[in-house]
Design brief:
single chain; 184 residues; mainly beta; Jelly Rolls; 12-stranded antiparallel sheet; elongated
Length: 184
């Protein structure tokens, strides 16, 4: 089931011919809060969050992070076993909530597009959720809240007191409301 669109960026906000010393860079990521609202007596739901993009998603340029309350778990996107699409598998107990983040990996160095030196990553697409065929639960109702969050970085990070700004905005869901009913 389609959740929302997404956009990942590492780009200058004012590219050439503007002076690069005043042109900050934006690093933009996709955040998805997802809660399994099945009754607590129901089995765990194995969910696949799949990313469909306008250009290939490269794990060398991205970081996938999942937090289910016990800290951040970093991983790569993997092919979904049914569709082959880049995905992040999640197993959520009934009543549990997870935060999934897909963001550019700015810790990389040139020539990687997501590096701050190159700053030339721009990927758009849409996100889907499905219940894995390996799920203990035959169905799941999940509450979703998709967001885009961006950070504006100064052109020169070595200056004293660099200026950082952030933005966050909710994305509309593809279906009315924020409850998805998933089944095998």
């Amino acid at each position: 089931m389609i959740i929302s669109s997404f956009e990942l960026l590492v780009k200058p906000i004012a590219p050439a011919p503007f002076n690069p010393s005043v042109s900050r860079r934006v690093v933009q990521a996709y955040f998805l809060m997802i809660s399994n609202v099945n009754p607590v007596s129901e089995p765990d739901a194995a969910i696949s969050i799949q990313f469909n993009s306008s250009s290939p998603l490269n794990n060398e340029e991205l970081i996938s992070i999942v937090d289910m309350g016990s800290g951040n778990v970093f991983s790569d996107l993997i092919p979904d076993p049914v569709t082959g699409k880049p995905s992040q598998p999640l197993t959520l107990a009934s009543g549990a909530t997870a935060l999934l983040i897909l963001q550019p990996d700015v810790s990389k160095t040139a020539p990687i597009r997501s590096s701050l030196e190159v700053a030339n990553l721009e990927v758009r697409g849409y996100v889907e959720a499905s219940l894995s065929p390996y799920s203990a639960a035959a169905h799941a109702e999940v509450l979703i809240t998709p967001q885009i969050r961006g950070t504006f970085l100064p052109a020169d990070l070595t200056l004293p007191n660099p200026d950082f700004d952030q933005q966050a905005y909710s994305l509309p869901t593809a279906n009315p409301g924020s409850i998805l009913k998933l089944s095998k």
